[in-house]
Amino acid sequence: MTTALITGSTAGIGAAFARRLAADGHDLVLVARDTKRLREQATELHDRHGIEAEVLTADLAQDDGIEAVAARLADRKNPVDLLVNNAGFGNKGRYLDVPMADELKMLKVHCEAVLRLTYAATQAMCERGRGGVINVASVAAFLPRGTYGASKAWVVQFTQGAAKDLAGSGVRLMALCPGFVRTEFHQRAGMGTDNIPGWMWLDADKLVASALTDLSRGKSLSIPDPRYKVLMGATKLVPRGMLGGISSRAGRKYGPEHRAQR
Ligand SMILES: NC(=O)c1ccc[n+]([C@@H]2O[C@H](COP(=O)([O-])OP(=O)(O)OC[C@H]3O[C@@H](n4cnc5c(N)ncnc54)[C@H](OP(=O)(O)O)[C@@H]3O)[C@@H](O)[C@H]2O)c1
Q1: pLDDT digits (tens, 9 = 90+) for 200-219
Q2: pTM of the predicted model, to two decimals?
Q3: 105 CA: nearest ligand 1 atom
Q4: Phi then psi for 42, rounded to 5 degrees?
Q5: What is the Cα–Cα distance from 117 to 71, expressed in whole angstroms?
Q6: Helix axes 146-165, 113-128, angle to 10 degrees
Q7: Is 228 considered catalytic here?
Q8: How far is CA 31 from the centre of its chain?
Q9: Could you tell me the maximum CA-CA distance found in the chain, to the nearest angstrom?
């Protein structure tokens, strides 16, 4: 029996990881801020799949939240075999629309928490000579797309660099770069999604299946859908300025409440 720790497990992509890993028989450590929701999820996964699911309430935008999760990852008596750094969010608005406190919070959750949790997990994994880390980035990592894209570019660079450094240790690291997935993400950020074409939406369960296959194949970067593989290949041919125009519009249309504020 192995154990996986998933941050942001209660919704969207994290919940899809939890469903799939529980169905595969892994025990889970579920991390998010909403304790009630975490407990309901743990009970449901335990009842359905017979696995043990621990609840760890933590806000990864806070030092004590990061430290609590890092301590769980460092617990040598209850080892974690797979870490999925998935918790994340979008800020509504473009550069200068977003308050600095929200920008810094994004860097804390997307970069600092990912750095510190990966460090805690891989130290323990290297001692055992096995383990895996999936850091959820985004295809936005490859596009000029505000602080969100910049933070996800950091996730990709960091993960691939660490994967290279740990090659031969038995520990695998992989950056996962999804395209648009229907989750709570856009609604939470107050982003309108009507300008995103239907073909661009990915299914969270298929995304997770593809990510786990890529990890088992030892990939350090996973772009889990042929549509996005082609699209990301094509971006290399499009001038950077034009790319910036297209990418900053897609999925960043403001919700009605935000339009009213502007
Ligand atoms: N959806 C997309 O189109 C898309 C595309 C590419 C990449 N991604 C990336 O995929 C990841 C998951 O996104 P999603 O679409 O599944 O989002 P989601 O449906 O909004 O779920 C976000 C999860 O993260 C948790 N979370 C948010 N802030 C947190 C914090 N400060 N501390 C701890 N947990 C926190 C939430 O639970 P609580 O609120 O209870 O904490 C929730 O479980 C993110 O990193 C996102 O950037 C998403």
Answers
A1: 999 999 999 999 999 999 99
A2: 0.93
A3: 31
A4: -60, -45
A5: 9
A6: 20
A7: no
A8: 12
A9: 55
